[in-house]
Amino acid sequence: MAVHMLKRVSHQTLRLKRPLFARFSSSLLIEDPKYGWLKELGLGADNDGAFTGDRWAGRGEVVDSICPANGQAIARVRQASMEDYETAIQMSQEAFKIWSDIPAPNRGEVVRQIGEALREKKQFLGNLITLEVGKIASEGLGEVQEFIDMLDFSTGLSRTFAGQVIPSERPGHALLEQWNPIGPVGIITAFNFPNAVFGWNASLALVCGNSIMWKGAPTTPLVNIATTKIVQSVMDANHMPPGLVTLLCGGGDIGEAMAKDTRVPLVSFTGSTPVGQKVGTTVQDRFGKSLLELGGNNAIIVLNDADLDMVVPAVLFASVGTTGQRCTTTRRLILHESVHDEVVNRLKKAYGTIRIGDPLDDNTLYGPMHSEQGVEVFKSAVAAAVSQGGKVEVGGKTIDRPGYYVEPTIVTGLAHDAEIILRESFAPVLFILKTKSFEEAVSWNNEVKQGLSSSLFTKDLGRIFHWLGPKGSDCGIVNVNIPTSGAEIGGAFGGEKHTGGGRESGSDAWKQYMRRSTCTVNYSKDLPLAQGVKFE
């Protein structure tokens, strides 16, 4: 897979139009006393972007991490080189040999301690996520809490995950399943949830007995570094083998190497559908396993009996939260014709109340796009919508202020199958459609290529269970009377079709980080064959 394949436009990979590669800025935010708290996370003006298991290094390009709220450099990072990658994978292999032999409940205790370490640094780490990603303060803290919740979940899992004991048809035989770790797990994460998505994967991979190699998004290196330092502090305190957790900040060459490497049995990739398809194909070519969590062109359906007092705040959060940069963001709002005009009018008023500003300000509800490229995606989506017959009801413009700010936008008047409707635009642009029936709305929900999240607002039990059933939503997340975004960690997270089919987080997602063996043990003195076969 060519390096350029990992540099396609996506919500995960290289946001190259963002001035990440502006070298050696004259001033850095970390040097401003206002941001002195960054040093509580072990960060400095210059930071190594590779942790190879026993040391911090970085022999690649020196880059600036940029704050999207003001366009200023936060700090510098020395990215990982291919030499760093090779050191990391070798260390990871050696660490796996030791870690996989440690009893699962003991691994769970180490995982529990990571959660405690994150609790101690939650405020600082949450603020860093806000500073580097651009999401509002409560969302930054919520992301760290999601990692903590996953660690708590995984701690309990360490004493409960198990295979089955299955009745055998042969006397004196036991038939059972055995689950074992698989080896070093490659984790490639997106800019929009740099801490939480790593947490989903790392928590389960570690408790299942694997070592992990992390390639974070190139535009969130400071979150990646700070998170790794917190995790590694627990590993050091418990005298765990070096290389159990490694970090490689860098670009497409690192992701390409991980996808091709037969020493990495599982690659978990979060990002766009086009890039995920390349990663999945490359991993499959070597008969490895991939866990893909890709795009989502998510819809909320509102029927004529819906509680509109619930609909409006739900749609508001789902469409403009994280500035429209969640994979579960609501991009299509399908309204029954009887409530269409009222909901549109209510939403226009609600959009007018959104508090736009510095995401570190607790009063702000809507911050910047993550990058300049994100602004271009927004502008392109609005232009395409207008050219295809859409009407901009609210927003549609960039905001004249420092940073990457755009107006939250509502577009009406488009056909359900307009090109811009069927394509995911990773920006705060909500397309509103008018439908005549529940059946038509469900068909529109399902006609897009992705199948991540969906929600139905109604009080009709019959329609609710139709929605949840085989002829309802074809998404991996099927909600009722709540937004499409904001999932809890207890359920498996992921989607169908071009969303990739992978499942992360809760439920039985842990099974993807292990290999299963079916074992038959004969404790008798006879040798009967299955299915009554005779061979004598």
Keywords, separated by commas or semicolons:
536 residues; alpha/beta; Aldehyde Dehydrogenase, Chain A, domain 1; Aldehyde Dehydrogenase, Chain A, domain 2; seven-stranded mixed beta sheet; 24 strands; 34% helix; oxidoreductase; EC 1.2.1.3; NAD; aldehyde dehydrogenase (NAD+) activity
- Strand tally is 24
Characterize the biggest β-sheet.
7 strands, mixed
Radius of gyration: 24 Å
Q: State the shape.
A: globular
How would you sum up this structure, described in words?
The protein has two domains: 32-294 and 506-514, Aldehyde Dehydrogenase, Chain A, domain 1, CATH 3.40.605; 298-494, Aldehyde Dehydrogenase, Chain A, domain 2. The protein has a seven-stranded mixed beta sheet, with helices on both faces. It has a seven-stranded mixed beta sheet with strand order 15-16-17-14-13-19-20, sandwiched between helices. It has a three-stranded mixed beta sheet with strand order 1-5-4, with helices on one face. The protein has 13 helices and 24 strands. By secondary structure, it is of the alpha/beta class. α13 links the parallel β19 and β20.
Could you give the topology of this structure?
Layout: E1 46-48, E2 50-51, E3 56-57, E4 62-66, E5 73-78, H1 82-99, H2 104-133, H3 137-157, E6 165-166, E7 173-181, E8 185-188, H4 196-207, E9 212-215, H5 221-237, E10 245-248, H6 252-260, E11 266-270, H7 273-285, E12 289-293, E13 298-302, H8 308-320, E14 330-336, H9 340-351, H10 372-387, E15 391-394, E16 409-412, H11 419-422, E17 429-435, H12 438-446, E18 450-451, E19 453-457, H13 461-468, E20 477-480, E21 492-493, E22 496-497, E23 504-505, E24 514-522
Parallel strand pairs: 1-5, 8-9, 8-11, 9-10, 11-12, 13-14, 13-19, 14-17, 16-17, 19-20
Antiparallel strand pairs: 2-3, 2-10, 4-5, 6-7, 7-24, 15-16, 18-22, 21-23
